[in-house]
Amino acid sequence: MKIRGIIFPIMFGLAVFINVSCKKSAGTDTPSGPTVTDIDGNIYHTVVIGTQTWMVENLKVKHYRNGDPILNGSGLYKALNDTVGIIYAYDNFAGNVSVYGWLYNWYAVADARSVAPIGWHVPTDADYTTLVAKLGGNYLLANGDTSAGGEMKETGVAHWGNANYPNTGATNISGWTGLPGGSIDAGSVYNGLHNYGIWWTTTTLEGANPLKWAYSMRLLCTDKSARRGAWNKTSAYSIRCLSDKNN
After folding, report:
1. Residue 90: closest CA among 231, 233, 236, 226
2. What Cα–Cα distance (Å) separates residue 242 from each residue in 32, 118, 137, 156, 224?
C-alpha cells in the first residue's frame, strides 16, 4: 500500500508535466509555424512558402533593432522632403496598429539600425518575385500577376472590403495572410484601409524624376493580382519581414 501511495503521485506528476509541456509548445508554435518576437515584444507567426520563411502579420515595431525609437509622425504634417525614418498609425488611431501594423516611410526601411528582428530583414524586390513565382505567378508583368494575389490575401471581409464590396479571389492558400493596411501619402492623406495593402521593399528605383522612389508589392480588394509598383519614399506603407535563412 505504501508503494502504491508513492508511485501514484509520481505518475500523476509526470502526467501533469507532459500535459503542461504540450500546452506550452502549442502556445509558441502554430499551424503556420514558429513565432518570432521583435524588440518591443510583439509576437509574429511565420509561414514557410517554398524556400522562404515569412512573417504572417504586418510589422508593429516602433523601435529600431538597437532600441532607438522610430519617429512617430501620427498627427503631424507629412512633408515631401522627409529623409528620416517615420511611422504612422492609420487615421492617427492606435487601434489600427494592433490589427494592421504601423505604416513606415521608406527611410525607416533603409535605416542601418534595422526595423526587423535579428535574423530577419525587409524583403527586396527579388524576394517578392520569388514568392509570387512559387505561387505560380509572374510578379514582373506590367499589370501585375493575375492570380497569386488571391493566394496571399486573408479571406473574408473582416478586414478586406465589406459585404457589399467583396474580397475578390481571396483564398490565402499560401498562408501569407495579407492585410489591407492602406497608406499615407503627401499632405498627410490616409487612403485604402480595408481596400489595399502595400508592402515596401528595400530596392530603390532612381530616375530623372526629382522625387526618390522604391519598389513595393501591392494587393487589392477588387482583384487577385499581386502588383509590383514604384512609390515615393516619403509615402508610408506596411512591412512584412522575411527570414535571413532559406529553407
Report:
1. 236
2. 14, 11, 19, 25, 22
Classify strands 71-72 and 86-88 as parallel, antiparallel or unpaired: parallel
Give 156-215 pLDDT, tens digit per residue. 999 999 888 899 999 999 999 999 999 998 667 899 999 999 999 999 987 666 568 999
Cα separation of 111 and 71, whole Å? 12
Helix (H, G, I), strand (E, B) or coil at 103: strand
- Give DSSP secondary structure letters for 36-49: EE-TT--EEEEEEE
**DSSP letter (8 states) at residue 15:** H
Domains of the chain, residue spans: 1-30, 32-243
Cα gap 221→161, rounded to integer Å: 6
In sequence order, the 6+-apart residues with CB closer than 8 A to the CB of 68 are 113
Among residues 63, 73, 107, the alpha carbon closest in space to that of 190 is found at: 73
Predicted pLDDT at 144: 66
What are the C-alpha distances in Å from 51 to residues 80, 133, 210, 246? 38, 11, 37, 5
What pTM does this model have?
0.84
Going by C-alpha positions, the residue among 245, 100, 240, 104 that lies closest to residue 176 is 240
- Exposure b/e, 93-128, CB count within 10 A at least 16 = b: eeebbeebbbbbbbbbbbbeebbbbeebbbbebebb
